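Minutes, project check-in
Item: structure for the 421-residue chain
Input as provided by the requester:
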Amino acid sequence: MQIIAQHGDIFIILACLFGFFMAWGVGANDVANAMGTSVGSKAITIKQAIIIAVIFEFLGAWLAGGEVTATIRGGMLDPALLEANPQLLVYGMLSALLAAGIWLMIASARGWPVSTTHSIVGAIVGFGAVGLGVEAVAWSRVGTIASSWVISPLLAGTIGFVLFKSVQYLIFENQDPFAAAKRYVPGYVFLVGFIVSMVTLTKGLTHVGLDLSFGQSFLLSILIGIVIMGVGVVMQRRIKYVQSASDHFGYANVERVFGVLMIFTACAMAFAHGSNDVANAVGPLAAVISVVRSDGVIDSAALVPWWVLVLGGGGIVVGLVTYGHKVIATVGTGITELTPSRGFAATLAAATTVVLASGTGLPISTTHTLVGAILGVGLARGMAALNLRVIGTIVMSWLITLPAGAGLAIVFFFMFKGMFG
């Protein structure tokens, strides 16, 4: 208690710096994943991707980021074992943020799309097991989160596979693919608007003073979906059929229609990602602030101050702008060749999975989800469409992430313990 009272301001300043650094890593690595499909399918440029991400990542983090934050902060460690020494939680959370931030910086420099959720969970488990004892870690909680790392790519891959098959059946196998695209794409646009609105309204907006019932949320989501569909229809009408000797079936024109849709799915993915993954950076930061302000009382359900979500959103944006291009290249072009229609199926599948997880408070990995969705879309075209060497490298980087985060966190934990006593 005395240590917290004595160094409280220093702890909060360090937590803000490390939290921003971790959020920077999320932006450099994870947001690049979210935008990779849109850039890889040439639906939008890198510059446009950054503008979309800046706006919607920030909104997702600020408006809908509160739900997952409580899971990552309160569920991993047993608060009862920390009550006698609350300063250990402070050292641990500072170590976790710094360790995860450094690992994400290394991975981003190499263009590896690793999981920020893996990084922070590995770091928290590492310092908890070594600094507090193996019994301090809620292993059942870790097991639940670990199972979501398997379930989320499978779920996203399945949704991506089904979505792309529906696109093939309804549009590409139609006698007039261009007319079919104009007929069915507004429905897909509605789906994007409805799914993201529904999960955001049912789970995410209580901390900004908007508390709606399920029925109200459902009706409002339908309304938002219809408005977004209307915008899509207006944008779609501007696309005129272009005759080309090399394009007998008019598929290039269909892809241009899907290019419009990719703008909506890019916005949805950025919002979904901001709402789910800001917790990785602000969860430990909010835990430190909570312990310091309450003079050492550990409360797993403390509210996240609004400015903490803003700090996390700001860090994510800076990370993407400064360092995101390398991972965008790996995800957008490395795994399988993407066109706007394939990119759409992958991104909507991933966004749906992420917002469902965000709604249930389960911290899944956006990276695993998106890569799973891209694999699902690739498989819909056959095994030959996948670049297995790149997939192997990605899986290797995933396996290294947990021990790397844990190892670095243990080193920093003992460093902070030595510095502050």
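Outcome recorded: Residues 115 and 367 are 6 Å apart (CA to CA).
No further action items on this chain.
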